[in-house]
């Protein structure tokens, strides 16, 4: 059975959907995993739009409505992974979103990793993602307003007893006025696994309907490298950064190692050799 990972936040604009597509691209292309991304944002699905699927004929909404089988709503992308998109407009407003886990059951036998892009709404939509996921990654940005909603997401996940693997801090400018990863960890009680810096190449990729991690010119950017390191930790595989800058970093033993890199190393070692993740 494939591993199901829900990517959640209870606030729009944190870049959750971009995190899903970028992480999927790295898992598929850097580590050879068979990956399916699922648009669990039922009210406002846009994962398909980000990947160039404007109006797919069969969607997750049709699956939940009993009008199609899940495998009939799966499409291949040119980016190395598959997608189960949602419908931008769907007439039946009484869909039972909590059937998501049941509808994905057969697909889990086909894929190594399923990434679910959740709704940012505190209702049955985000609950559906939690119930369909083996673990959760919570996306936040380094500011107090978003942290407040992040704490609510963490609280809800714990109430539903869905394991939170860690936090992803997105759109980080590296400014002194931003909350530090240590402060966010302390207030949330959840370890930070990745700090994704603000990168204009991510916005460019969004405009071009593709994952940012697949641009060869951007492949060694700080944001792409952070996604690759996170993907490696999630599947328990080694990834060694190459190049002169990486060598200098390893030689600079006096410089403290960021906490999120330690958290990733612990996660990778926990999963190393575990067939559930390999």
Can you describe this structure?
- This protein has helices at residues 16-31, 47-50, 60-64, 100-104, 124-132, 144-159, 181-188, 200-207, 222-234, 244-251, 259-271, and strands at 3-8, 35-40, 75-76, 82-84, 113-118, 135-140, 163-172, 192-197.
- Strands 3-4-2-5-1-6-7-8 form an eight-stranded mixed sheet, with helices on both faces.
- With 278 residues, it is of the alpha/beta class.
- 38% of the residues lie in helices and 16% in strands.
- The mean pLDDT is 90.
- It has eleven helices and eight strands.
- The chain is globular, with a radius of gyration of 18 Å.
Strand order of the largest sheet: 3-4-2-5-1-6-7-8
Shape type: globular
Number of helices: 11
> How many domain regions?
1
Rg result: 18 Å
Uncertain runs: none
**Count of strand segments:** 8
- Spell out the CATH superfamily: P-loop containing nucleotide triphosphate hydrolases
Structural class: alpha/beta
- CA-CA gap between termini: 11 Å
């Amino acid at each position: 059975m494939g591993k199901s990972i829900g990517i959640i936040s209870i606030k729009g604009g944190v870049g959750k959907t971009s995190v899903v597509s970028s992480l999927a691209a790295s898992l598929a292309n850097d580590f050879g995993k068979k990956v399916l991304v699922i648009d669990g944002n039922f009210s406002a699905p846009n994962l398909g739009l980000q990947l160039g699927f404007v109006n797919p004929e069969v969607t997750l909404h049709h699956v939940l409505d009993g009008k199609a089988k899940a495998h009939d709503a799966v499409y291949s992308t040119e980016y190395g992974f598959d997608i189960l998109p949602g419908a931008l407009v769907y007439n039946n407003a009484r869909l039972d979103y909590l059937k998501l886990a049941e509808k994905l059951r057969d697909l889990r036998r086909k894929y190594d990793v399923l990434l679910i892009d959740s709704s940012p709404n505190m209702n049955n939509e985000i609950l559906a993602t939690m119930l369909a996921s083996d673990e959760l990654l919570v996306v936040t940005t380094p500011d107090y307003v978003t942290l407040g909603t992040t704490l609510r997401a963490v609280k809800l996940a714990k109430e539903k007893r869905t394991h939170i693997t860690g936090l992803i801090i997105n759109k980080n400018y590296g400014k002194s006025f931003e909350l530090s990863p240590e402060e966010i960890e302390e207030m949330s009680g959840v370890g930070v696994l990745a700090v994704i810096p603000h990168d204009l190449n991510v916005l460019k990729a969004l405009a071009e309907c593709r994952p940012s991690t697949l641009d060869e010119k951007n492949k060694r950017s700080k944001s792409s490298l952070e996604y690759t390191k996170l993907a490696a930790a999630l599947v328990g595989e080694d990834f060694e950064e190459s190049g002169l800058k990486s060598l200098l970093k390893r030689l600079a033993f006096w410089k403290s190692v960021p906490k999120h890199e330690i958290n990733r190393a612990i996660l990778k070692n926990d999963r190393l050799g575990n067939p559930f993740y390999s």
